Amino acid sequence: MASKHCDAANMDPDIELLSDEEVEREADGYKEQGNAYYIQKDYAEAFNFYSKAIDVCPKNASYYGNRAATLMMLSRYREALEDSQRAVRLDNAFMKGHLREGRCHLSLGNAMAATRCFQRVLELEPDNSKAQHELKNAESVLEYEKMAEIGFDKRDYRMVVFCMDRALESASACHRFKILKSECLALLGRYPEAQSVASDILRMDATNADALYVRGLCLYYEDCIDKAVQFFVQALRMAPDHEKARLACRNAKALKAKKEEGNKAFKEGAFDAAYNLYSEALTIDPNNIKTNAKLFCNRATVGSKLKKVDQAIEDCTKAIHLDGSYIKAYLRRAQCYLDTEQYEEAVRDYEKVYQTEKTKEHKQLLKHAQMELKKSKRKDYYKVLGVDKNATEDEIKKAYRKRALLHHPDRHSGASAEVQKEEEKKFKEVGEAFSVLSDSKKKSRYDSGQDLEDDHMNMGDFDANNIFKAFFGGPGGFSFEGRPTQTEGWHRM
Fold first, then answer.
1. 123, 197, 208, 410: most buried, per Cβ within 10 A?
2. CA angle, 447 as apex, 442 and 453 as ends, to 5°?
3. Is residue 304 within 8 Å of residue 332, measured between CB atoms?
4. Residue 41, by phi and psi: left (phi above 0), alpha (psi -120 to 50) or beta?
5. Which SS3 state, helix, strand or coil, does residue 111 take?
6. Under a CB-based contact definition with an 8 Å cutoff, are residues 433 and 466 in contact?
7. Neighbour count for residue 269 (Cβ, 10 Å)
8. Residue 383, CA distances (Å) to 185, 196, 290 in order
9. What is the Cα–Cα distance from 371 to 376, expressed in whole angstroms?
10. What is the DSSP string of 171-228?
11. Strands 483-484 and 479-480
12. For 31-58, how does the pLDDT look when each residue is reduced to its tens digit (9 = 90+)?
């Protein structure tokens, strides 16, 4: 015997068949037990008893509906969707079945299918508040999908992440939305977050090509190119037509090869070739922030070797812009600043390095830059005399003789008061410079950045005439335009 609800035709013929009423009573008993466990939130046991009820009466729509509700609580939405669809096939007027099917579709990210289900509920019961609410959620998800698509095309990845977060509030089990979010997180440089999302998906579905691609993308952008390629290859194995994985794999291999060529040329001293190879590598993938930061820093190193110091500074700045924590770029730029006597900028970079990594070496570099900055703020006596910092004693004497005669007050006695004042000032500076650089002790203190006042030399009371007289041998030892030198008559400076 069989009813429209319960099918006993496949039972063993040697077993005495139960009546329809007895079968229904048995199935209802299982259902009631399932309900009791459901109320207690023991969804695993509820699932088991609803399954027993279905085994006894496989054509009862409400049993499938109940099991679908339980599966939804267990976040097993695909199975729940199948049960919901069976329920409405058995009973197209089963409102809860349509509602649950819609919720499953929405949770899985199929908002269009969900919309149709909720509309069917409203056809059956126009005032159903749950269906009205869920319909609005489905429509919102559709709108967020459109906004995300536009945002991705415009490379507005933050907008995409925002839209996907909103959409996932209703479509919590949608892998497609999660993958899009994680890809955009990777493109924004938020690698740990992106990896976390992709890893969650791979734990549930190890063959998900999109998740494998995103894992590879994160590794690629973190400059772990060999590992990244392995994930791209695995993604292509799962989905041979995965165009993004194919492009990323190609870029990763090309970037690694070009960078290694540049490194090889640099080690061999072929700096021009290395510079060009690093430049070519920088054109491969503008999105690879970390690798490109290293390439800019490498090119800066080559640039400094090629005496392209300004270009090297610019490349270091680009590297820092891409990766603000890149210590090597700060160190390289600081050295370039020192080489070009931009001491304040050098100190700023070394301070940044020392704040990040308080090593003894970084402290010494900072102290050296601070000393150079301090020295740069004093009079540069080497520039005053027009000699190099490594000038010999004889070169310093010759330079003094030339500059002292050039700026001597007697030479400019016929000039305007303004010119005389300026030349007197220069004459005094020349004397100061010679008095320091010609004295080994003072010169050593000056070169090390120490204050000359500590050497009991008050430059404010300095008399340039005494230096001049001592150098040229006193009164009568030198004359301008045939006139005897009147050193005693010169103005004190």
1. 197
2. 45
3. yes
4. left
5. helix
6. no
7. 9
8. 55, 60, 43
9. 9
10. -TT-HHHHHHHHHHHHHTT-HHHHHHHHHHHHHH-TT-HHHHHHHHHHHHHTT-HHHH
11. antiparallel
12. 999 999 999 999 999 999 999 999 999 9
213 with 248: CB under 8 angstroms? Answer: yes
Instruction: Tell me phi and psi for residue 484, to 5 degrees.
Output: -65, 150
**Both structure tokens of 141:** 């998800």
CB 340 within 8 A of CB 321: no
Q: Which of 294, 137, 306, 120 is nearest to 221 (CA)?
A: 294
DSSP 8-state code for residue 378: S
Instruction: Report which DSSP code applies to 415.
Output: S
**C-beta separation of 103 from 123 below 8 A:** no
DSSP label of 411: G
The answer to whether 306 and 270 have CB atoms below 8 angstroms apart is no
Sorted by sequence, the CB contacts under 8 Å of residue 123 that are 6+ apart come out as none
Print burial letters for 230-240: b (CB count within 10 Å at least 16), e (below 16). bbbebbbebbe
Token pair of 461 as six digits: 């009371």
Closest CA to 301 of 291, 292, 293, 309: 309
Q: Among residues 195, 193, 190, which one has the least CA distance to residue 213? A: 195
Of 423, 396, 418, 422, whose CA–CA distance to 407 is shortest?
423
Cβ-proximal residues to 432 (8 Å cutoff; 6+ apart), any chain: 379, 381, 384, 459, 462, 464
What digits encode the pLDDT tens for the residues 106-160?
999 999 999 999 999 999 999 999 999 999 999 999 999 999 999 999 999 999 9
Instruction: Report whether 305 contacts 289 (CB < 8 A).
Output: no
Distance CA 222, CA 215 (A): 11
Terminal CA-CA length for the chain: 130
Distance in angstroms (rounded) separating the CA atoms of residues 291 and 392 = 48
Q: Is residue 188 within 8 Å of residue 152, measured between CB atoms?
A: no
Whether the predicted model's global pTM rises above the 0.70 cut: no
Within 91-190, where are the H helices? 95-107, 111-124, 129-153, 157-168, 175-187
Give the Cα separation of 185 and 191 in Å (integer).
7
